[in-house]
Amino acid sequence: MKSPGELFDLTGKVAVVTGSTRGLGREIAFGLAHAGADVVVSSRKAASCEAVAAEIAAATGVKAIGIACHVAEWDSIPAMVDEVVCRMGRIDVLVNNAGINPAAQYATDVSKELWQKIFSVNLEGPLRTSQCVAPVMRDGGGGSIVNIGSMSGYGSIVQSAAYGASKSALRHLTMTMAQEFAPWNVRVNILSPGPFKTEMLAAAEQAQPGALAMLAATNSQNRVADISEIVGPVLYLASDASSYVTGDDLTVSGGMRK
């Protein structure tokens, strides 16, 4: 039987985190590295990926590399995965964190272009990345895929028609992949955050003072989470601590009503 510390230990594992040069993704990458994993930082800009990877390596002592990839570009993802395998040897953890919510989307007038842009990153990106990574995990003995969803995927939110729909669809996709990948010893779960103190919410507060207080009032703890509070739940799903958990949705929202 493993001790509690051993259950959460990722030493010797390789973790890929998409959208990890800022915000929650960056925090997740640092957290997995502190747990012992070698980390691949991936986002659209190579310079940013390499800079964050260097910070992680210096702070934690693990091997960390940056590989640029835009997950909305379906055909670019296999090359990214191939490069990870070439440079790191294996993939044990994939966190599909990259996501966008670039503009207000009313269901009455959201454009086809905006709808497709959001879905290409938030849904097609995790699908294609998982398609490419799961066989690598299978050949390495198994692994864990963690999709980052949103509480917006549970209910209707004005101005978030496409974003909410993409996250709701991601939850359904997670359950399907969990069933299909189970014979490969690959677990797939989704983590749905509530409001966190990211750059996005800071900008919202600046544009509309009181926005953070309004979001805080939507959950039982009456607060917006610090970004460091995402690490524990992700580490749980990524590690052997959740070895009997797949096809599940872990909400991290301070008790937000669904």
From TrEMBL:
It comes from the Bacteria. PROSITE patterns: ADH_SHORT. The keyword Metal-binding does not apply. Pfam families: adh_short. GO terms for molecular function: 3-oxoacyl-[acyl-carrier-protein] reductase (NADPH) activity. InterPro entries: NAD(P)-bd_dom_sf, Sc_DH/Rdtase_CS, SDR_fam. Keywords: Oxidoreductase. SUPFAM superfamilies: NAD(P)-binding Rossmann-fold domains. Its EC number is 1.1.1.100. Belongs to the short-chain dehydrogenases/reductases (SDR) family. NCBIfam families: PRK07231.1. This is 3-oxoacyl-[acyl-carrier-protein] reductase FabG. It comes from Mycolicibacterium vanbaalenii. The gene is fabG_11.
